[in-house]
Design goal:
This protein is mainly α. The protein has a single domain, classed as Rossmann fold, CATH 3.40.50. Helix content is about 40%, strand content about 10%. Helix 3 links the parallel strand 1 and strand 2. It starts with 16 loop residues before the first helix and ends with a helix. The mean pLDDT is about 90.
Length: about 110
């Protein structure tokens, strides 16, 4: 799906009402306190909108979103450019995170 037609706000996403309500409360709290979004695990089968939800979280927070696939993170040296290059408050979305090697998981 092209990025131009992917929803960018919670209000544009159809379905997942309970999830979006909980995320909205979290985003509102983070923004009002000047905090950053805590770690969030988005789980589900392919095609349910995990990437879209991550993108909407970043948009709602006014944060940059960095995306990668666990297949690209075979060692610690592969994840360091993301961690070192991100601004505070940025969001890192790792697709297929269940495939992340143990050494990278524990880093």
């Amino acid at each position: 799906m092209a990025n131009g037609i992917r929803p960018t706000q919670f209000s544009e996403i159809i379905g997942q009402t309970d999830v979006l309500n909980r995320l909205s409360v979290c985003v509102t709290g983070c923004k009002s306190s000047g905090g950053v979004m805590p770690h969030v695990l988005i789980d589900g089968p392919p095609g349910l909108g995990k990437t879209t939800i991550a993108s909407a979280i970043a948009s709602e927070m006014g944060s940059n979103l960095y995306t990668t696939n666990a297949a690209n993170l075979r060692s610690i040296k592969n994840i360091l450019p993301y961690l070192m290059g991100m601004d505070q408050g940025s969001i890192l979305f790792i697709d297929e995170i269940h495939r992340l090697p143990k050494i990278v998981e524990e880093f």
